[in-house]
Structure formats: C-alpha cells, structure tokens
Specification:
The protein is of the alpha+beta class and 419 residues long. The protein folds into three domains: 97 residues, conserved putative lor/sdh protein from methanococcus maripaludis s2 fold (Beta Barrel), CATH 2.40.420; 115 residues, Elongation Factor Tu (Ef-tu), domain 3 (Beta Barrel), CATH 2.40.30; 120 residues. Helices cover 36% and strands 35% of the residues. The strands form four sheets. A six-stranded mixed β-sheet has the order 1-22-18-17-21-2, with no helix packed on it. A six-stranded antiparallel β-barrel has the order 4-11-14-13-12-15. The longest helix is centred in the first third of the chain and has 61 residues. The radius of gyration is 51 Å and the shape is elongated. It starts with 13 loop residues before the first helix and ends with a strand.
C-alpha cells in the first residue's frame, strides 16, 4: 500500500509582498485624500458666473473717480435784515443786476417808530454832551480871564508900591494908604497862585471828561448810524453785480428777520463742487489735478479748496477749470471726472471687482494650475483706483484670481469651477 506524500505549500515570493504593500499604501493614500478633500468646505459654481482676472505688473495710476457739479465761482445770499411785508418788487428772478441796484422794498411800522424814537433820544444825548463840552470850554476861558485880571492887577499894584515908597517917606501919603497897597499886592499874588492851581485841576478834569465824552459821542453816533441803517435796510439792494438766480418774493408777503430772500451768482466764472468718499480725506489736497471729457474734448481742473467736514460719508472739494473752459456749461450740470492723487508707480496690479467689497482686499480665491479649483489665500493690498488695486503681499505676477463678488462664498475655503 502506497503511503500518501505530504505536499509542502510554496511561500509567496517577496516581490508579490512588495507589490501588495504598494497597492495597499496607494489605496490608503487615495482614501486619505478623499477624506481630506471631503472635509474642505467647497462651493461649486458654473465657470461662466465668475470673473477671473490675471495679476499683472504695471504702472499704478493713483486715480479716483469723482462726480462734480458746476456752480458759480461766487454767490451772495440775500437775507431780510429787518423783517416786514413786501411793498414792491423791482426786478424779476433771472435778471442781471448791478451792485447797489434796488431789488425789493419792505415795510415795517414798528421799525420806523423805533428808528424815529432812537434818533430823537440819540440827538438829545448828543446835544447834552455837546453842551457839557462847551461848559468846560467856558470854564477854561473864565479861569484864564481871572488869571489875566489878577496878573494885571499885580502889575498895577507893584507900580503903585514903587511910587508910594517915596511918597510915604516925604509924608505925601499916609502910612495906612501905603499898607493897603502892600496888603492888596500880597493878596493878589496869593490869588494868582490859587487860580493857577485851580487851572491845573480843571485842565486835568476837563481832559479826562473830554475823552469820556468823545467815547460816548462816538458810541451814540454809531447807534444813530445803526438805527438809520436798520431803517434803510428795508430797501434791499444788490450787494454785487450778477444774475439773480433765485428770488421767490411776491408783493404782500411777510418776511421774518433773517429770512432768505434770494441769491445772486457771478456767472462769468464757474467752479466745480465734488463729493468724495471719506476714505480719501487724508489723501486729497489743494493743487491736485483732475481730468474729464465733455462733448468729445478733454479738460483739466485743479483742486483749490478741501472742506474737512464729513457729511454722510463724504467730504467736499472745490475745483477750478484750467486752460480752456467748456462752452455752454450750465449751473447744476454734472461731470464725471478722474482725480489724480499721486504720480504713477510700477506695482503688482489686480483688476478691481466685486470681491473688494466682500473681503476688503484681505483675501481672494486663487485658481490652481488645473483651473478646476480656486483656493482661498490671504493677501495685503495698498492703494486702489477705479480700475486696479495695488497688491503688496500674497500674489505673484501671472496668477489668476476670481475678482467677481464673493457674496455666496465668504465661509468656504475653495471654489470648484463647473463646466
């Protein structure tokens, strides 16, 4: 009986084990990639719904678009200094007027009475001060006359004393008569000293009071002028020559103190008033240049004044035309302009798009080489104009960036472009 022969199992060759290890590793890596890829927040969007722009290197022109409005270079507002009813209107709205030309006559009975009373009171006070000044002058003259009389009497007494000394020695006059002359001379000399001292006091007081009176007279005269002016202001006149572009006044109307009556514009010279976003308030300065196109011709304007006040997110600037002024421009006409903030600088540029409002220029979606996915990447930008934003960090020349709006993609990490 034949015995069964034991069959030995052949060992697997090493190369097969190596092949298995490679296959398992590849499968594991593929599975890991699938799981990792699935964990990335991805937004799938048709390619035709996106705008893709290429990063380029070029000259960055520091321009911003602004919208300007044509305004008269100089305007003067007409206000009712003293209110009243409209008696008569002398000109019509839109008319050209000369400086000093009457425009409207107002009437105010209370103002007339007050002006008359003020005139009477002021005139009375001026007369009183004038009389006081005259009295001081009369007093000065009276004192001077007393000094003259006393000096004259002293001269006469000295002459009499000189003659009486010989007469009394010869007993031609009594000693009493001689003593009377001596006593009167001494008295007159003392009176003269007193009068001169009084004259010094009176002169000092008169000078002080005359200064006060002069001040009071000047104030009263100014009050009288103001009173007369307030009455005269009821006749409203044109302060400058120009066009009366606004004048909504009708006979019989009642106007309050300070109420606006109209406006006069100097129409032979215009300026441009533009509103600019507050983002540029620190970068706009006088003498910066702006360009615009009108009727197929290009014109220039220069910034002459920057108003720092910010209202509703914008500030205001005034510009004047340089060189040729556009023909047939009208007050209130709008212009689309470009304001130059600085000289051109060679920089890395990214076309401006809706993404800038969604990210503030802090990050973008950058397409990979295959063009199927765009990954989120942090960047840093600098200045911007109406066409480009200056790239400081995060992008390279030639890279493609999604520049359309990110309104639906702010929380995703990548975009998948579907065909």
């Amino acid at each position: 009986m034949a015995m069964d022969k034991k069959i030995e199992k052949k060992k697997r060759p090493l190369w097969q084990w190596g092949l298995i290890a490679v296959v398992v590793s590849a499968a594991g890596f593929y599975l890991y990639q699938l799981l990792a890829d699935a964990s990335i927040r991805t937004y799938r969007v048709p390619q035709e719904q996106l705008i893709v722009s290429t990063v380029q290197f070029g000259a960055f022109e520091d321009l911003i678009p602004i919208r300007g409005t044509i305004q008269p270079f100089e305007s003067v507002f007409l206000d009712a200094v003293i209110g009243g009813s409209v008696d008569e209107v002398f000109v019509e709205e839109g008319s050209f007027v000369e400086a000093g030309q009457p425009l409207v006559q107002l009437s105010n009975t209370a103002t007339r009475l007050n002006a008359a009373q003020a005139d009477a009171q002021t005139t009375e006070q001026l007369n009183t001060l004038t009389n006081t000044t005259n009295n001081f002058e009369y007093q000065r003259l009276a004192t001077a006359r007393q000094i003259l009389d006393t000096e004259y009497r002293i001269v006469v007494l000295k002459r009499q004393l000189s003659r009486s000394e010989k007469l009394v020695e010869e007993n031609l006059i009594s000693q009493d008569e001689f003593d009377e002359i001596v006593d009167e001379l001494e008295y007159r000399e003392k009176v003269l000293v007193n009068l001169k001292s009084r004259q010094v006091v009176e002169d000092s007081e008169r000078e002080s009071r005359q200064e006060q009176i002069a001040t009071q007279i000047a104030m009263l005269t100014e009050n009288l002028r103001i009173s007369q002016t307030s009455f005269e202001s009821l006749l409203v006149k044109a302060p400058i020559a120009g066009q009366l572009t606004s004048f909504p006044v009708e006979p019989g109307e009642s106007k309050q103190n300070g109420q606006r009556l109209g406006q006069i514009d100097v129409v032979d010279q215009y300026k441009i008033v533009a509103q600019i976003d507050e983002y540029y308030v620190s970068r706009v300065a006088p003498d910066q240049m702006s360009t615009f196109t009108l009727s197929g011709n290009e014109f220039e304007a220069r910034v002459i004044k920057v108003y720092p006040e910010i209202t509703e997110g914008t500030f205001e600037v005034d510009l004047i035309f340089l060189g040729m002024t556009p023909a047939n421009i009208r007050r209130g006409q709008t212009l689309q302009m470009e304001l130059t903030l600085g000289n051109p600088v060679e920089s890395l540029l990214l076309p401006l798009g809706g993404f800038i409002q969604d990210t503030g220029g802090n990050w973008v979606f950058v397409l990979g080489p295959d063009g199927q996915f765009a990954h989120r990447r942090d960047i840093r930008v600098g200045r911007r104009n109406n066409r480009y934003v200056e790239v400081r960090e995060g992008l390279q020349e030639g890279e493609r960036v999604v520049t359309s709006s990110y309104s639906q993609m702010e929380d995703v990490e990548r975009i998948q472009l579907a065909q």
